[in-house]
Design goal:
The complex is a heterodimer of chains A (about 375) and B (about 70). Chain A is about 0% helix and about 65% strand. Chain A is mainly β and about 375 residues long. In chain A, a hairpin with a 3-residue loop joins β16 and β17. Chain B contains two helices and no strands. The chains are: A mainly beta (about 375), B mainly alpha (about 70). At the A-B interface, β1, β2, β3, β6 and β7 of A face α1 and α2 of B.
Chain lengths: ~375, ~70
């Protein structure tokens, strides 16, 4: 299993000024990998401003995962390849989160709670945030603290029930640069300890001059990381369009360094439509303990999970938005994901098996 | 060196910013100037990429984790 702090609860100010009293929406994600996993995820979400100074945000979602998950990396055919063993995967995850915040003068204080349950993983998290507007609300700084207490289990091993605890710290800064541009930069530190081994991943290695070796996935019992995210928006009135750029640098004490860059052009068409073509580029180095084969002598920690390999990704996407009367909005996105060793900015793992996936996101919402 | 350059850039950027009055913020309030996509789309994209990459992290904390296959 891989840590994936996935639910955005403390969202830094997304707009320079509130324009709605609230909004509710339904979104559906469909994701399909060629030959492997398929994910369906309906999401209900909403936010509302209450009595001017209070705001509530909430969402609930169900992940339905089916298909085949690679469980064994074996070089029986001569080179390490992913092998799907046993029955196909069928998993369901339910999750919800809620955040309540209150504005007091130029400050906003918030508290959040998130719950996630699946057959082999349980997460309980909370967060605290303080935000302060400065410089006639042209500058916003925010600090946040989050903590999650997770339990790692396994559908294959009923005896497995181990903790994984994570503490997160965040400091952010949002700046209005001009009537047409703004930038936000956030630093997030995460300190985790507990069980990180993936109970579903195994490595089988054949040697030309020795008996084959079999290894369970074993990882360090801690993971400390830093993520630095910067987002920039520039509106171009003459083109009726907005340029969007997001960049995230990530590093952790497993040896992983990654860069994720997304650039997009949101083009208004008429009074109701907008189209947003985007390109996302990704690159990461491998974890220190990643290997697709078991070295000799066998190390104390080893994982052949190719999500820990060195690889890169390219993902083009297109989003269309239709604004209707009465506050209704319809939104749809389609995207393609290709992850491969040779797409890394540098040398990738030659054992990385190329991932090709498609996704579609459809949503309808109503502002009130 | 990198940190020093980053700090200098931030200070220079702040110094270059003249306050924008509320009546000048019409463009900033446009939906396409939002830093996040709509909540549902943002969560769906986080799921799409987060479960296949080793890195994570955004402008949020306290979201908990998942056992992503």
């Amino acid at each position: 299993m891989q840590a994936a702090l996935a639910l955005p609860i403390f969202t830094a100010p997304a707009r320079a000024g509130p324009i709605d009293q609230g909004e509710v929406g339904l979104t559906f994600l469909g994701y399909k990998e060629r030959g492997l996993m398929k994910i369906s995820e309906p999401i209900a979400w909403g936010h509302a401003q209450i009595a001017e100074s209070w705001e509530v945000r909430a969402s609930a979602a169900v992940d339905i995962v089916t298909g085949a998950s690679p469980e064994l990396i074996s070089n029986v055919t001569g080179r390490p390849v992913q092998t799907v063993t046993g029955a196909s995967v069928s998993d369901r995850r339910t999750t919800w989160d809620v955040k309540v915040s209150r504005r007091i003068g130029e400050a906003t204080l918030g508290v959040s709670r998130a719950i996630s349950n699946e057959e082999d993983y349980r997460s309980r998290a909370f967060g605290l945030e303080a935000k302060l507007d400065l410089n006639e609300r042209n500058t916003t700084i925010n600090v946040a603290y989050g903590q999650s207490a997770d339990r790692v289990r396994s559908a294959d091993d009923p005896t497995l029930d181990e903790p994984r605890d994570t503490r997160e710290y965040l400091v952010g800064w949002t700046q209005v640069l001009s009537p047409l541009a703004l930038v936000q930069s956030t630093l997030q530190w995460s300190r985790g300890h507990g069980w990180y081994d993936d109970p579903y991943k195994h490595t089988l290695t054949f040697y030309p001059d020795d008996a084959p070796a079999f290894a369970l996935d074993t990882r360090p019992s801690h993971r400390n990381s830093l993520a630095w995210l910067t987002r920039y928006r520039l509106h171009v009135p003459s083109a009726r369009a907005t340029f969007q750029a997001d960049y995230r640098f990530y590093r952790d004490d497993w040896g992983i360094r990654s860069h994720a860059l997304e650039v997009a052009w949101s083009q208004s068409i008429g009074e109701r439509w907008s189209l947003r073509p985007a390109l996302r580029l990704y690159s990461q180095s491998r974890a220190d303990f990643y290997s697709a084969v078991i070295p000799r002598p066998a190390p104390a920690i080893l994982s052949s999970d190719q999500r820990l390999a060195a690889f890169g990704g390219v993902s083009p996407s297109l989003r269309a938005t239709l604004q209707l009367d009465g506050g209704w909005r319809v939104e749809g996105s389609v995207g393609y994901v290709r992850n491969a060793g040779n797409l890394r900015w540098g040398t990738g793992s030659d054992t990385f098996e190329t991932l090709r996936a498609y996704y579609g996101i459809a949503g309808v919402s109503r502002a009130f | 060196m990198t940190r020093a350059l980053a700090a200098i850039s931030i200070v220079a950027l702040l110094g270059a910013c003249a306050p924008v009055a509320p009546y000048q913020r019409g463009y900033l309030a446009r939906p396409d100037m939002a830093l996040e996509a709509s909540a549902g789309t943002a969560k769906a994209l986080e799921k799409t990429y987060g479960s296949k990459e080793a890195a994570s992290g955004s402008a949020t904390v306290g979201g908990g984790g998942c056992g992503c296959n």
